[in-house]
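Sat 14:20. Reprocessing the chain from the morning session after the first attempt stalled halfway. Input below, unchanged.
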Amino acid sequence: MSVTLPNEEQLADVAKRLGFNLSPEDVKSFQGLMQGYVDDYNAIDLMIDPVPEVTYPRTPGKRPPVEENELNAWYVKSTVTGAPEGKLKGKTVVLKDNVMLGGVPMMNGSSTLEGYVPNIDATVVTRLLDAGATIVGKAHCECFCMSCGSHTSALGPVCNPNDPTKSAGGSSSGAAALVAKGEVDMAVGGDQGGSIRMPSAFCGTVGMKPTHGLVPYTGIVPIEITVDHTGPITATVADSALMLEVLAGSDGYDSRQIDISVSNYTEALDKPVKGMKVAILKEGFGHANSEAASDDKVREAAKKLEALGVTVEEVSIPLHLMGPAIWTPIGLEGSMQTMMLGDGYGTSRSDLYVTSFMDFHRGWRERADELSETLKCAMLFAQYADDQHGKRYYGKAHNIVKTLRAAYDAVLADYDAILMPTVPMVATPLPAADASREEILQRGFEILANTAPFDITHHPALSVPCGTVDGLPVGMMLVGKLWDESTLYTLADAFEKSGDWKTW
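Finished this time. Tokens:
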């Protein structure tokens, strides 16, 4: 690849798109001044791109046959055996398919990325392998992770392991389904609006969205830097704490990691909870689309904590109800500028840029019709808003986030955690193949009211199963102080050990 001097026609077109009124003489003049830029770009092109070396051998990745993929949760199966010893020795892990595994295909739920093979391992991959885990493949996720349901992957919907006619939740759909079904011990998920916690609630797994920046995002396809989170999806609270202990910490690349605070999370297990205080968030219940039976299960779970000696009191944070609205300009405009127009990375930060991905991903512009309806709608409005208003609503939303964060912090100053339903309902029906765009969008975004606010405020949030309604899991979410994942693990571990949620 090399950079060439623009011809006069190309430069005139660029000028027009930028609003410059240049005469042919102006164009020719500017063209003559650009050779130095071209030379510098080409000097960069000849230099070595210092990306981390892939070290652990692996099989190349193969799509499993239908009989080995009944939930359509696998994208490819691959085997990468980690170190002979470590905290995760004997544990099998699947990666959400926005996590880069060198030499193994990644499509991030979109046909526009089929055929891309990363040339690096994400930091979380290296840490898992160094800890002795065996990575066994990639799990389907939603098209560029832009859906709360499990119906937008280019290779078909992911089915709920409790009822294959129902959604597995999104966007870490395959990851949660495979853990819940028992095909793997652990999974790496991603969470920008609730995408670890929502599928965990629907499938019946433990999903931790850590404090923003605690786990390095290097080598994972971003959506928007200020809401990108990655973390564990597991069958038990203990496995979640163990996995987070391996994943957490600075990697020297990820600019999201500012003044992070790491703990030994397994030390938070098997501790008494008597005397701890939990706030039930009034506004977390009774949404317009909430199911009363699901809300009731979460209130019953709060009573079980109370029986363990936890003080449980209701609090009100009215601004919580505006959380999804505050998230919207950040999520839509941020994803448009970073993930799509920014070739997956955007600019203005000193991360590790995976240029092989950036080169491949640019091709979406010629294949935009193949993107999911959920992503198209988000992109269309983001571009319209930018055309009409620039970045003001993105900026104003970030300003208001500080007010929302302060509202949660004020409660957390007096309580160890805030409790609410993870999602307002149990798993919903998968849209039919001929479903209307309206239904696809409804199912794509209807369950994030309680989860999305904590992606923008950055508080850690843990979803733990707390019962069933008609055989489908219900998730209880505990939200904690920044960097205080340990307290959430203490509460969730005690709750989990108080009985079998599947019988509640």
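The longest helix spans residues 392-412.
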